[in-house]
Amino acid sequence: MAKAPSSLHQPIPDSMLVTLARYRAKQAVLEQYRAKGLRPWWDCEAKDITKAANAYLQQHPELFAQAAESVRNDPKLRTLAARQVREIRRNQRCPS
Predict the structure, then answer these.
(1) Is the pLDDT of residue 84 over 70?
(2) CB atoms within 10 A of CB 88
(3) Alpha-helical segments (H) within 3-95
(4) Residue 3: what pLDDT?
(5) Which pLDDT value is given to residue 24?
(6) DSSP character at residue 7
(7) Burial of 85 per CB tally in 10 Å (0-12, 13-18, 19+)
(8) Cβ contacts of 81 within 8 Å, gap of 6 or more
(9) Could you give the count of Cα atoms lying within 13 Å of 82 in the half-sphere of its Cβ?
(10) CA 12 to CA 77: how far, in whole Å?
(11) Is the distance from CB of 25 to CB of 63 less than 8 angstroms?
């Protein structure tokens, strides 16, 4: 039986998952605004877009799973996640 690549089992930093999930929520909100005929950055304030994106994220927790899947499937994101995990572990061993 073939072994799964070790990179598939690497931990993903929470900060990366939150950032990607929030990005997708914001994109979904912007798309909703455009569907209503609004120009998001002209007709709405950034704080309103952010509030709507946070509400969208609370209603759609599956965005976190999609973010994790994106990291697992994208070699660049996987590399970035591994680098962040190494840095987090290094900082835990020898705090400054």
Answers:
(1) yes
(2) 14
(3) 14-35, 40-43, 46-59, 62-73, 75-93
(4) 41
(5) 97
(6) G
(7) middle
(8) 10, 11, 12, 13, 16, 71
(9) 12
(10) 10
(11) yes
Q: Which residue has the tokens 């605004």?
A: 33
pTM assigned to the model: 0.78
Identity of the residue numbered 8: L
With beta carbons less than 8 A apart as the criterion, state whether 77 and 68 touch.
Answer: no
Query: Could you give the CA distance from residue 33 to residue 38 in angstroms, rounded to a whole number?
Result: 5
Q: Residue 12: what pLDDT? A: 87
pLDDT tens-digit map of 21-50: 999 999 999 999 999 998 888 888 999 999
Burial class (CB in 10 A: 0-12, 13-18, 19+), 24: buried
Q: Which contacts of 35-38 are long-range, i.e. CB under 8 A and separated by 24 or more positions?
A: none
